[in-house]
Write a structure and sequence with these properties.
Blueprint lengths: L1 H29 L1 H23 L16 H20 L1 H22 L11 H29 L1
Length: about 150
């Protein structure tokens, strides 16, 4: 089952990069906030259909959870909005690497301290090196994009 989850997540990453690129281009015509709105409107319609046919949970429970847990919806919206803003300016790969680096940094902090009732996983040298390499890759990708952009303008 773990291998399938990795494969599904890989496919999710592919769709996220494609969405980022399309949304970045679309936002030049429609606007950043409007593009983000369309994405969430479409997602709402799609998920409503999925809940109707496949849902087995309790939608009313959304009103019963601790209020701080509702912040996750805001955080997801902010992620998409910031991604739509970044792609036309720094490119898809730099945007995605920056997003992944941010996820890794906060993920290490959350794991280390066990925030949000997560499993506590101590920060070790392997994790530090993984973060360091991700930041180095972001630097090189961003510099390469910047150089390519400057060369194409010349």
């Amino acid at each position: 089952m773990g291998l399938f989850m990795i494969l599904f997540t890989l496919i999710g990453g592919i769709t996220l990069s494609a969405q980022s690129s399309i949304n970045g281009t679309f936002s030049r015509k429609a606007g950043t906030i409007e593009t983000t709105f369309l994405t969430f409107l479409t997602g709402t319609m799609f998920l409503t259909i999925f809940i109707f046919f496949f849902g087995n949970g309790n939608v009313i429970a959304l009103l019963e959870v601790p209020k701080w847990q509702l912040s996750a919806a805001f955080l997801g919206t902010m992620y998409l909005l910031l991604t739509v803003m970044a792609v036309p300016r720094i490119g898809v790969i730099a945007t995605n690497i920056a997003g992944i680096a941010g996820q890794l940094v906060i993920g290490v902090v959350i794991d280390h301290f066990g925030w949000f009732n997560s499993l506590i996983i101590e920060l070790d040298i392997k994790r530090v090196f993984a973060l360091l390499f991700m930041i180095i890759s972001l630097y090189f990708i961003y510099k390469g994009n910047k150089r390519s952009s400057e060369e194409s303008k010349a």
